Amino acid sequence: MKLGKEAEGLERQPYPGEIGKRIFDNISKEAWQMWMKHQTMLINEYGLTPVDPKARQFLVQEMEKFFFGEGSEPPPDYNPK
């Protein structure tokens, strides 16, 4: 879905629950790697702690948007180096 082309799938479900199943069924390795880089940027720019339940909820929402919605945007003041 993310890349709009056929690509190699994931070897296993990368995340628990229903969203993990949707990702496994629909998302390629390449798109998952794109998400991992984007997620790292979100964690760093927003100063998130992944073990914090609110941070995890935010990341799941962004993951949903990234793969299946309008896309996950970087913070407004984000300046890639």
UniProtKB/TrEMBL annotation:
It comes from the Bacteria. One of its GO terms (biological process) is cellular response to oxidative stress. Pfam families: Iron_traffic. InterPro entries: Fe_traffick_prot_YggX (IPR007457), Fe_traffick_prot_YggX_sf (IPR036766). Keywords: Iron. GO terms for molecular function: iron ion binding. GO terms for cellular component: cytosol. Belongs to the Fe(2+)-trafficking protein family. Could be a mediator in iron transactions between iron acquisition and iron-requiring processes, such as synthesis and/or repair of Fe-S clusters in biosynthetic enzymes. This is Probable Fe(2+)-trafficking protein. It comes from Nitrococcus mobilis Nb-231.
